[in-house]
Write a structure and sequence with these properties.
single chain; seven-stranded parallel β-sheet; 36% helix; lipopolysaccharide biosynthesis; Nucleotide-diphossugar_trans; nucleotidyltransferase; Cytidylyl_trans; Glycosyltransferase family protein
């Protein structure tokens, strides 16, 4: 009896999206959330040609959750004890144990592998005397993440996979020294109408896949698998879906990419804004320029937050400065509030990096370090100084995507990741005294204490919700502290009210913000109460603020502006 083995290759320590194989992606027929790898397994089980399925991963502790998932879902997995980067060795160990006649390798980050194509390719391979299959010359196809081999073909491939790159990438050895005979086949359908990424390697890829799966299951039963043909039609008719991850650059196996470091801080006084922005920048560098990034972070209170980025945590500022001094990467970015760092020490370290040719970029309030920076990118409408090394403006704001949604009669309260100004002590009582029938939703940041609600308060508290972007998009009125949340609220076209910012913003910036008329600016919590009451009773004022919000962000392109600046600074060609 012919034995056909499907092997799913997966490791959780991806350089661009760690843990991606276990990220949630829609539900199964029983209503249980399936991870990406669960959908891959489900699709393979619908193939009529496959005899056995096995997971190929490594035995290191980082991948233990993946091993546990395989065991819980009756997926055979014998973790590989060898070199974690030796993918070919990892697969070969399974193949020598299983002794299959044919092998189909499945990349564990592609939850849109097409079962019909897999059956089509395997039948063609079985009917031939060749080692592998490939599409006929000139055929363009959406398919990704698969490789097909006879047992003898696999052995030939192993024999020529004798360098680092060919051990890390399945099939690369045959590109260097062609040894495989090929059966050229037609596609299983017309999948060449559009070219697009259908693998998950970055945050943008994951957002794309989440949206694809969401749309499919709105109109299709949960027991069905997402049709790749349908995905192609959705991409053809909806440019917004296409744009979610169209900018992502695929990494080439034979190319060395630049690396970068981002330095930032967080904590009860500082808030989470610098860290969250650093995560966003790290993702952008990876997706647009394929630059690997480490985020070096000092937490003033020793608190840490979960992150899918590569974060190096430091116990104090001195440890952070030591890391900066030793940093060998060609690009360094700094995102700090200058009031909370030793500026002289940072200036000395940056001057030392300049002697090594390191490019140094400051983010936001780094004007005091301008002399030792190559570029200062200010994601703000307000530029404190005009200088040829400074870029600023409404178009520079660094936001992740805010979805489109119909506004609801809802008051949203955003006091920041740590509620650094302590709004939670007084503001809940003030809000309850208004007596509105509009729901009031208070977002408690991950580092913030719980707000002090009066007895029988009507305020609903949500702690660090995953769908905050959607909540911002839906809210008609938003009360916000000064910082990223304020400008995200304006960008989300809400009628936005700035809570008294105290020391977080200077008077000149507040005056300039007032002149833009895209939000209301309060000097005290009592004044904020009066302004909120006006917004609740005057729909024309709400519409005016929303219209002005649309105006100021009409030419917004923050991420692309930063990427263009970095590309220019590094002398990249693209």
């Amino acid at each position: 009896m012919t034995k056909i083995l499907a092997i799913i290759g997966a490791r959780l320590n991806s350089s661009r999206l760690a843990g991606k194989h276990l990220l949630p992606l829609a539900c199964d027929a029983a209503g249980n959330t399936l991870p990406i790898i669960g959908h891959i397994l489900r699709r393979l089980k619908t193939c009529s040609t496959i005899s056995a399925i096995e997971l190929a991963t490594t035995a290191d502790e980082f991948n233990q959750p993946l091993i546990n998932w395989a065991q819980e879902n009756q997926l055979t997995c014998v973790p590989f004890e060898g070199d974690v980067n030796d993918l070919m060795g990892r697969l070969d160990r399974i193949i020598q144990r299983q002794q299959p006649d044919y092998i189909v390798y499945i990349c564990g980050d592609c939850p849109l592998i097409d079962p019909n194509f897999i059956d089509h390719a395997l039948r063609a391979l079985k009917a031939s005397d060749k080692d592998t299959i490939t599409l006929k010359e000139g055929i363009i196809s959406l398919h990704e993440g698969m490789g097909f081999y006879t047992r003898s073909g696999w052995n030939r491939l192993m024999a020529v996979s004798d360098c680092v790159m060919s051990r890390e990438h399945v099939g690369y050895g045959d590109k260097l020294r062609p040894v495989l005979t090929k059966r050229y086949i037609d596609d299983s359908g017309n999948y060449g109408k559009i070219t697009h990424r259908i693998s998950v390697d970055t945050h943008a890829d994951y957002r794309f896949m989440v949206e694809v799966y969401r749309r499919w299951y709105v109109n299709n039963p949960t027991e069905t698998v997402v049709s790749l043909e349908w995905v192609q039609e959705e991409l053809l008719k909806d440019s917004a879906l296409f744009a979610i991850n169209a900018h992502v650059q695929q990494k080439a196996a034979n190319k060395n990419y630049a690396k970068a470091s981002i330095y930032c801080h967080l904590g009860p006084q500082i808030g989470l804004g610098h860290f969250k922005r650093s995560e966003l920048i790290a993702n952008a560098l990876q997706e647009h320029l394929s630059i690997g990034v480490n985020i070096h972070t000092y937490s003033e209170a020793g608190q840490r937050v979960d992150s899918s980025s590569k974060v190096v945590w430091h116990e104090d500022e001195q440890a952070l400065l030591s890391a900066l001094t030793e940093d060998q990467n060609p690009l360094v970015l700094l995102d700090f509030h200058p009031n909370f760092i030793d500026l002289e020490s940072f200036a000395n370290r940056l001057a030392g990096l300049a002697k090594r040719g390191t490019k140094r970029i400051g983010i936001d309030k780094m004007v005091p370090l301008l002399d030792v920076l190559d570029w200062l990118f200010i994601p703000s409408f307000n530029c404190p100084a005009h200088h040829p090394k400074i870029s600023a403006g409404w178009q520079n704001y660094l936001f992740s995507t805010i979805p489109q949604a119909a506004k609801q009669a809802q008051i949203l309260v955003l006091t920041g990741g740590s509620d650094a100004l302590g709004y939670g002590r007084e503001l809940p009582t003030i809000l309850d005294s208004i007596g509105t029938d509009w729901p009031i939703l208070w977002i408690q940041g991950p580092l913030a204490p719980a707000p002090q609600l009066p007895p029988n308060s009507a305020i609903v508290v949500q702690q660090n919700p995953d769908n905050l972007k959607e909540i911002i998009a839906q809210s008609e009125i938003i009360l916000s502290c000064y910082g990223l949340s304020l400008f995200e609220s304006i960008y989300g076209k809400a009628a936005t009210l700035l809570l008294p910012p105290q020391h977080l913003c200077d008077e000149a910036e507040l005056i300039a913000l007032n002149q833009e008329r895209c939000c209301l600016v309060s000097d005290s919590l009592e004044e904020a109460k009066v302004m909120l009451q006006q917004l609740l009773t005057e729909p024309e004022q709400r519409r005016s603020l929303q219209n002005q919000a649309t105006r100021v962000f009409e030419s917004h392109q923050g991420i692309q502006a930063l990427i263009d600046d970095i590309r220019h600074l590094l002398g990249a060609v693209n």
